Amino acid sequence: MKDPMAVSIRDRSTLVLGTRGSKLAVQQSEWVQARLRELAPEVTVTLRRIQTSGDKILDVPLEKIGGKGLFVKEIEEALLAGEIDLAVHSMKDVPTQLPQGLAILCVPQREDPRDALISRTGCMFKDLPHGAKVGTSSLRRQAQFLHARPDLRIEMLRGNLDTRLRKLREGHYDAIVLAAAGLRRLGWAHEITEYLDMRISLPAIGQGALGIEGRHDDVFIHSLLGRLDHALTRVAVLAERALLDRLEGGCQVPIAAYATASGTGLRLEGLVASVDGKEVIRDVAEGATEHAGEVGRQLAERLLARGGDKILKAIYGTA
Fold this sequence. Notes:
- The chain contains 10 helices and 13 strands.
- The chain has 3 domains: 4-108 and 208-229, Periplasmic binding protein-like II (D-Maltodextrin-Binding Protein, domain 2, 3-Layer(aba) Sandwich); 115-195, D-Maltodextrin-Binding Protein, domain 2, CATH 3.40.190; 238-316, Double Stranded RNA Binding Domain (2-Layer Sandwich).
- The radius of gyration is 20 Å and the shape is globular.
- The chain has helices at residues 4-11, 23-39, 53-56, 73-80, 139-148, 161-169, 180-185, 219-225, 231-247, 292-316; strands at residues 14-19, 44-49, 86-90, 102-106, 115-119, 133-136, 153-156, 175-179, 194-195, 210-215, 255-262, 265-273, 280-288.
- The chain is α/β, with parallel strands linked by helices.
């Protein structure tokens, strides 16, 4: 029987990898490109930059333009049309329901999942002045910050990382909050004032993890990417996404979760919060890694039963 990998390499000497055009997205895609070059030097991987809806609309909060799929929709359309062979996403941007025919084929090892505070004067979160202006585009962060510090002024901040850092330096904000993973991937960890404790800011679902998406029936891509997959990261992200799916949340709803997997055990912490931070429902679930999805769904049910259902209905306007 012929080796399917050998046949596929001969038949597909060039692959096209789709990516957003931001500096961070391109860096992440170039990292995957380099790993694929190591795994299959016979195959040439070229990058194709694709502008998404989330990249085009920068002056409106994400939750007001429909938070699901804003940074992946056009890329997924290119995958389905056969214009690209694979795509690299930040998993926190990927909706829990994928278009028919597509799948997350690989989840490499996770970077630092925490939120990072960058303050103009070097103040830690607890030492920010009363009424300090904090920039973020995330309702998840807003809710948790206001819960810990109701005195803070949370203001919208969108744009790529360069733009956000420039606005901070220009004095538009006293501090901004970004995902530590992006700053570290770009070599900008020195900008971080403080890695926020998860008791202050529990991360977004999938934060710090990359997902490589492809067509479900693409045997070559699937087998090639399998060697980049990190089992413990995949299981942890699966649990987080199962919780989000049950809560029917998008990336901008005040829902957070972080899972850790080791050996055969899994621990998942999650929360649902009101936008003003006055109500925060938080809980933990544990289980076997082989039942990661069920652990996520069970924790979601507990959060809903404890009042999360009422909070989410108020946010969605269905109360």
